[in-house]
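[Automated response] Your request has been received and processed.

Submitted sequence:
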Amino acid sequence: MAENEHVRLEIAFDGGQITGALVSVASADELERALSNGADGTVALDATDGKYLVPLRRVVYVKRFARESHVGFSG
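Generated structure:
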């Protein structure tokens, strides 16, 4: 994958809040590694609309979409 590609994430937090963002592949990978390793603290996600700081202890689940889907016809 090229460095400038993005992936859509949905992150659910304890308490019920869910947020979605289009983030860099590197950021998504970093979040996945931190959660898999049971890390504490926060992870900064570089998204198309800004930077998100995610408190790892509050994350209930992360959904990483395989690829952007488009409805319609391409020209």
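Summary generated for your ticket: The domain at 6-64 is CATH 2.30.30 (SH3 type barrels.). The mean pLDDT is 89.
If you did not submit this request, please reply to this message.
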